[in-house]
Amino acid sequence: MAEPVCEHCRKAHHSDKLKKDLIIRLNRIEGQVRGVGKMIDNDIYCDDVLNQVSSIQSALNGVKKLLLEAHLKSCVTEQIQNGELEVIDELMITIDKMLK
Prior knowledge:
Elements: H1 16-41, H2 46-81, H3 86-98
């Protein structure tokens, strides 16, 4: 059965290399999060757990940076070239959320 066509649905157009890199990073982060759960379950010293959580946040920031760069270079650029300047407002909202 064919997927319904949606004129309002948007899709990213990431290269296979970027997708692979993002998936590898996210899988690694997923493993780190599971590890933190085990650390807590095993009553590991709080400071050690907090340091691991900081590492996870740093890794997630790396994913956000890659996605933001790709978004700017593809989606945002394309929309601006098509005269869809509301993408700037959308991007500013996203950046505001990222900085919180």
